[in-house]
Every structure is written in C-alpha cells, then in structure tokens.
C-alpha cells in the first residue's frame, strides 16, 4: 500500500517573489498572494505544514479598488472603550495607509490559527517602489499572467 508523500519543514525550499501592485485590483492581488504564502502553487503542498514562499509587494499605493469599494467598503476596529468603534472607508485607507489595506486583505484569506500567523510573517508590503529585500534577490512575478 502506497501512501501520499507529506512535506516536512526540513525539505521545503523557499523562494522569494516580487509583485508590483500597480493597477491591479485588491482582491485579485490578495488571492494570488495568499495562495503563494500557503504554498498551494507547489506540488508538495500539505495543509498542516507551512510550505509557502516569501512575497514582497511594491507600489501598494497604486493598486485599484473596483466598483464602489472606495466608499462602500468599511474597515472597523474597536478601541475597547465605550463608544470606541472606528470606521474607515477603503478609499481613505488606500490614501493614508495602503500597506495596512493590503495586509488586512491578505490576512483575511489565511487560516485563523498558528499556521496562518506563521505564513503571514512571510509577507512584506511597501507603499512605494523601494524595498529592503534586495539581498534575497526576489524573482519578479507577473500577476496578470496568473489571473
């Protein structure tokens, strides 16, 4: 009887990908990035092991929100004080803090457990074109070909 080979953390070879977010819809970017972080693009994908790669996203401030998401999509957070509910529209968040917008979108597509938090740490988002991962020599990934 043959068993399915399962990945071990010692056998995983991690790559670095560089994604330019200019004129790409937020949801399409997030789904591709979450899939890479989980390792679903690899043949040795195992659901309970972190088999994913590292992702660097540049030009997060230039991504686009389709439809009426800029005004209708609201991000909420609470300060834990009475009356402390804060609401920020997606368009305002894109203008003020595009890094946080991309991180929230990708984090919502990862598992809500220890494995998901571990996978999220491999995401690096920058609002501009400069990034700090040049030493890792990330491979440029064209997201339009994957969509």
Q: Which key terms come to mind for this protein?
A:
single chain; 147 residues; alpha/beta; Ribosomal Protein L13p, Chain: A; four-stranded parallel sheet; two-stranded antiparallel sheet; 6 helices; globular
Spell out the blueprint of helices and strands.
Layout: E1 16-20, H1 26-38, E2 54-58, H2 69-72, E3 74-78, E4 85-89, H3 90-96, H4 98-107, H5 114-120, E5 123-125, E6 139-140, H6 143-146
Parallel strand pairs: 1-2, 1-6, 2-5
Antiparallel strand pairs: 3-4
Helix pairs in contact: 1-4, 3-4
Walkthrough of the structure:
- The protein has 147 residues and is of the alpha/beta class.
- The protein has a single domain (13-142), classed as Ribosomal Protein L13p, Chain: A (Alpha-Beta Complex).
- The protein has six helices and six strands.
- It has helices spanning 26-38, 69-72, 90-96, 98-107, 114-120, 143-146; strands spanning 16-20, 54-58, 74-78, 85-89, 123-125, 139-140.
- The strands form two sheets. A four-stranded parallel β-sheet has the order 5-2-1-6, with helices on one face. A two-stranded antiparallel sheet has the order 3-4.
- Strand 3 (74-78) and strand 4 form a beta hairpin.
- Helix 1 (26-38) crosses helix 4 (98-107) and helix 3 packs across helix 4.
- The longest helix is centred in the first third of the chain and has 13 residues, at 26-38.
- The termini are far apart.
């Amino acid at each position: 009887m043959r068993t399915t080979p399962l990945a071990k953390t010692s056998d995983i070879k991690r790559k670095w990908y560089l994604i330019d977010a200019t004129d790409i819809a937020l949801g399409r970017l997030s789904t591709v990035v979450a899939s890479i972080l989980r390792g679903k693009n690899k043949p040795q994908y195992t659901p309970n092991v972190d088999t994913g790669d590292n992702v660097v996203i540049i030009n997060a401030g230039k991504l686009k929100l389709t439809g009426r998401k800029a005004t209708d999509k609201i991000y909420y957070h609470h300060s834990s004080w009475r009356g402390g509910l804060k609401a920020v529209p997606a368009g305002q968040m894109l203008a003020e803090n595009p890094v946080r917008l991309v991180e929230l979108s990708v984090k919502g597509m990862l598992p809500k457990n220890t494995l998901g938090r571990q996978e999220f740490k491999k995401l690096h988002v920058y609002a501009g074109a400069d990034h700090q991962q040049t030493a890792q020599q990330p491979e440029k990934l064209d997201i339009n070909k994957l969509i």
